From TrEMBL:
Source organism (scientific name): Microbotryum intermedium
GO BP of this protein: cell division; mitotic chromosome condensation
Protein name: BQ2448_4033 protein
Keyword terms of this UniProt record: Cell cycle, Cell division, Chromosome, DNA condensation, Mitosis
InterPro entries: ARM-like, ARM-type_fold, CND3, Cnd3_C
């Protein structure tokens, strides 16, 4: 529809009648033209504004002639609001209505801006500071009051369009009085809680535009807009509403934590938007170090490719703003943080040009002579990145083995000097140690075809390991290099054991040299009778004074030896071999376990290492010092994993220690115990008196840990044993179900996450496992319902309802969801146990027959229709089920309608599904079948028990009645000894006669 022609200006004012006719004719035309294209909005807004200005000039006097009436503005407002009403009833998604809404908001903004400029010009000419409302302000106030009524409409479409129009108008409202502002704010706060997500989203957009004005308000008791938006951002169930709050919430120290938490939003679009639209606009320096690391780490390990790409783009942008990779790396913690390496890899993937300006060479190796922690770290990660890409540039950039050996020796010398200085600089030591560690890690991946370089690296590593000043953090890295440059694991073990023995020899010399010096001081003393006594006294005094120092030295050396042995055992267990096997795919499994066997034999053949166990590990376990003792226990556990005789000898000791220790040490011991059971089986101690039964008891008791970390560790270990079919105990399975649904474990997310993965995998992977779950279904469900009923209101809300628990258990036992059913082959169908739910239905009806509590019976009836009854089910089983249902309905009828209807639906479903199988069953064969005998005997036994109980209750009631009469007589006799007033007796007799007459 073409827009109306512009109204020419006239020198004289329009009459009211002429104005009304013009408005009624042209305003609808303008609205109609604006719905077709946004391109014509500017022209139509100017035309409508011209009509508005003409209308504002039309005024009339009141009847008494003292008041000027704005009749023109009123006429325009009436026609304008009548036109506004039409799009308010159009549902979301209609483009014509959306264009009209934008047109209205555009006109309001244009009119308010024109009004503001005109007032400024008039104020400048008249030098008058008085602010008077212009025509546009009055129109906006009327329109806003009209739209606020739409906020309360019952129609959700009207509420949505009203809030949408206000959201577009908010920025154009200009200056409004405080009452109007509070009214608007309160109305929007109500719509933020609307039941429709579309309304809430528009309310969030409108409310966000009031943030700056709201923060300027000094009223501390008033609810802040930012607080409401933070709450919406955190708790609103609709992803689009949270997204609206995410886009419109102004970043500040107050709102930044809530914005960062959207990197963990369940909606991938919101997570991606948090990186590309929120964090992308925030300078990296505004975030704390922890916030930066957490946000980027979450994005880089996100399961959605789009989110990972957004995080990489953000990291690349921040690195450019920081002025390069090295400077950007200074914003992160290299020493304790874990995100820096992934961050650098992301930068190299998304923006490799940032590394082009970095020079790794130089004529004299200037770069390697002046390494800092950040440059060393960047170099190592960059070389690994090029190695993964098989980039040919790596050969030109990476130093050769011999050169790297000299670089390591140079930095190690600096570190030793710093560690041995009289005045130590901890910051410098930390930096030098980190640089040495990066260079050593770099050496692991080098090509050792150069024999001279290999020997140089070997000598450097051996020298560093033999030095008692070597930081503990460098021990594993040095052992990795030694493992790489030695010819075999056996040779590697021999070298490391020699290093440990040399350190222990130094420990012995350290404590004996002082005694030798003390003896030398007395060499030249006269040999008389008092010399030996004086020497003994001096030695005792000297030993007493030096004992704390000697103890500290021995402890440090023992700890160092234990750290080395621990790192050695971890590498002997085949971690590097395992990684190589993984790279080869499925065919590498045999090689991995074969490698473990070979290294176990190497351990048994290495008598030197067994000597360390006797001389170092066992004494460490017996020490009272917690640090030494914990290291000894960890080493003993690692040795047990490689040597079954040691495992048998140490299992009981480790089990006792798991009860006596606490914290991180208990977790480590429990992990070791479960690893031993997985590796050697639960019968590893059958010859020692702790066979499978004892181990199962230990597993049950281990699931009752008080510490959440220890409890989660035990659950993970038990799940491993059950998935590997080493443990099939139904009691333990029932305990796992209780832990999964109990309210006490709601905060133990590690435990819940483990079990949420375990149960589907365990049940669906094997029909035998589904059968076990079905066996624990009824007793576990009954126990969980009792627990649920005993909880308070708050705890009950935190726990899953019994009906939902039952539905989840039925889902795990559903044969249709088994992996064999998914394969749908002849062999898989033959292995499928599709009568699990049929047998479970019989057990549930039996419990229903025995149960007398209304709630328990109702729960079972609600679950029955959810069972899967196969079409090809055995006819005798189905007929037994139907016979049992009829017996229940006749002998133990249900009281409530819900239970009756549910049982009726289930019965009809069974009859409809298995009608042919039931009809094919011969009556004589059915009467002679074991299924019929089972249900018949069950019903008969329970009915007889019920009769016996009723008779016993009657006899008990009669005996109680006789006993009560005797007791009354016995009690009444002593009362007669006390003479009572005659009047009272007469009154009692009269009352008894009245009661008899009434009867």
């Amino acid at each position: 529809m073409p827009g109306p022609k512009a109204v020419p200006s006239t020198s004289k004012l329009d009459s009211l009648e002429t104005l009304q006719q013009t408005l009624q004719q042209q305003v609808p035309q303008l609205f109609g033209a604006s719905q077709h294209s946004v391109a014509s909005h500017r022209k139509n807004i100017n035309t409508l504004h011209g009509l508005f200005l003409r209308a504002a000039q039309v005024t009339t006097l009141s009847n008494d002639g003292t008041t000027l009436r704005l009749t023109g503005e009123k006429s325009f407002g009436d026609v304008f609001r009548a036109a506004v009403v039409h799009p308010l009833g159009v549902k979301k998604g209609v483009e014509h209505a959306d264009r009209i809404i934008k047109y209205i908001a555009g006109f309001v903004g244009f009119a308010v801006e024109h009004d503001f400029k005109q007032r400024e010009a008039e104020a400048a000419d008249a030098d008058d500071d008085e602010d008077e409302d212009g025509p546009a302000s009055r129109l906006v106030a009327q329109l806003l009051a009209f739209l606020l009524k739409g906020f309360q409409a019952k129609n959700k479409i009207a509420r949505f369009r009203s809030v949408q129009l206000v959201a577009l108008m908010v920025n154009s409202l200009g200056e409004i009085d405080d009452d109007t502002y509070q009214l608007l704010k309160q109305a929007l706060l109500e719509r933020v809680r609307d039941k429709e997500s579309t309304v809430r989203m528009q309310a969030v957009v409108a409310l966000a535009k009031l943030q700056e004005a709201d923060e300027a308000d000094d009223d501390d008791e008033e609810l802040r807009v930012s607080d409401v938006l933070i709450d919406v951002l955190t708790h609103d169930p609709a992803a689009e509403v949270r997204r609206a709050a995410l886009f419109n919430l102004i970043p500040s120290p107050k709102t930044l934590p809530a914005l960062l938490m959207r990197t963990l939003d369940v909606d991938p679009i919101n997570r991606r938007a948090a990186y590309l639209h929120v964090l992308y606009e925030i300078p990296c320096a505004r975030l704390s170090q922890t916030q930066r690391e957490d946000a980027i780490a979450r994005g880089l390990r996100d399961r959605e490719e789009g989110v990972r790409g957004a995080a990489k783009k953000l990291v690349s942008k921040w690195a450019e703003e920081a002025g390069g990779v090295v400077r950007f790396l200074e914003m992160f913690d290299l020493y304790e943080g874990k995100a820096a390496e992934n961050i650098l890899s992301a930068i190299f993937d998304s923006n490799p040009a940032l590394m082009e300006g970095m020079n790794f060479g130089g004529s004299q190796g200037e770069f390697w002579q002046s390494l800092s922690p950040h440059t060393a770290f960047t170099s190592r990660v960059y070389f690994n990145h090029l190695r993964q890409l098989e980039d040919p540039r790596l050969a030109d950039l990476e130093p050769v083995v011999t050169a790297l050996a000299f670089f390591i020796q140079n930095e190690w010398t600096k570190l030793v000097v710093s560690l041995d200085a009289a005045e130590r600089d901890e910051v410098a030591e930390l930096e030098l140690g980190f640089v040495v560690g990066e260079l050593v890690e770099m050496a692991v991946d080098l090509d050792y075809g150069d024999e001279i370089g290999r020997r140089k690296i070997f000598e450097s590593m051996r020298e560093m390991m033999s030095n008692s000043l070597l930081p503990y953090s460098l021990v594993p890295k040095c052992l990795d290099v030694l493992l790489k440059v030695t010819s075999s694991e056996k040779e590697f073990m021999r070298i490391v054991v020699e290093i440990v023995q040399s350190l222990r020899a130094d420990s012995h010399l350290m404590t004996t040299d002082d005694d030798a010096d003390l003896d030398n001081d007395s060499e030249h003393e006269e040999e008389d009778e008092g010399v030996e006594a004086r020497k003994a006294r001096r030695k005792r005094r000297y030993t007493a004074s030096q004992e704390p120092v000697i103890f500290a030295r021995r402890k440090q050396l023992d700890l160092r030896c234990l750290v080395i042995v621990k790192a050695l055992l971890e590498r002997v267990m085949g971690v590097s071999l395992y990684l190589r096997v993984l790279s080869k795919g499925k065919e590498g499994g045999a090689e991995f376990f074969g490698g473990l066997i070979d290294m176990s034999q190497a351990l048994q053949e290495n008598s030197m290492l067994h000597g360390l166990v006797t001389e170092l590990v066992v004494p460490a376990i017996k020490q009272k010092d917690q640090e030494v003792r914990s290291s000894g226990l960890v080493c003993l556990g690692l040795i047990s994993l490689l040597d079954k005789p040691t495992a048998v000898d140490s299992f009981e000791l480790l089990a006792r220690q798991s009860q006596d220790t606490e914290g991180e040490l208990r977790v480590k011991i429990l992990q070791t115990l479960f690893d031993l059971l997985v590796l050697h089986g639960i019968n590893l101690g059958a010859d020692r008196g702790f066979g499978a039964d004892v181990i199962l008891g230990f597993l049950m008791s281990s699931l009752e840990q008080e510490e959440p970390e220890a409890e989660a560790t035990c659950v993970i270990g038990v799940c491993k044993l059950m998935l590997s079919t080493l443990v099939t105990d139904e009691e333990i399975l029932s305990r796992l179900v209780l832990l999964y649904f109990a309210s006490e474990t709601i905060d133990n997310q590690e435990l819940r996450q483990c079990l949420s993965y375990f149960f589907p995998v365990y049940a669906y992977s094997n029909p035998a496992n589904q059968r076990r779950v079905s066996k624990v279904f009824l007793p576990t469900l009954a126990l969980l319902k009792d627990v649920h009923d005993e909880l308070g209101t708050t705890e009950r809300n935190a726990m899953v309802a019994p009906l939902q628990i039952g539905l989840q258990l039925l889902d795990w036992t559903d044969p249709q969801k088994s992996i064999l059913a998914a394969e749908d082959t002849k062999a898989s169908r033959a292995q499928l146990d599709d009568t699990i739910h049929l047998d479970l239905a019989v057990q549930m009806i039996k419990v229903l027959f025995q149960q007398t509590q209304k709630d328990e019976r109702k729960l079972l009836c609600q679950l029955l229709p959810k069972l899967y009854i196969p079409v090809e089910a055995p006819g005798c089983k189905v007929k037994a089920l139907l016979w049992l249902i009829k017996a229940t309905k006749s002998k133990r009828p249900l009281a409530d309608t819900v239970s009756k209807n549910a049982l009726e639906r289930f019965e009809k479903m069974v009859i409809k599904t298995c009608k042919e199988q039931v009809n094919e069953v011969d009556e004589e064969a059915w009467q002679a079948s074991g299924e019929f005998a089972d249900v018949r005997d069950f019903v008969k036994t329970n009915l007889e028990e019920g009769q016996d109980e009723d008779e016993s209750e009657e006899r008990e009631a009669e005996s109680v009645g006789d006993q009560s009469e005797e007791e009354e007589e016995a009690v009444a006799r002593p009362v007669r000894r006390v003479p009572a007033p005659q009047a009272d007796d007469d009154e009692e007799d009269e009352e008894e006669e009245e009661e008899e007459d009434d009867e």
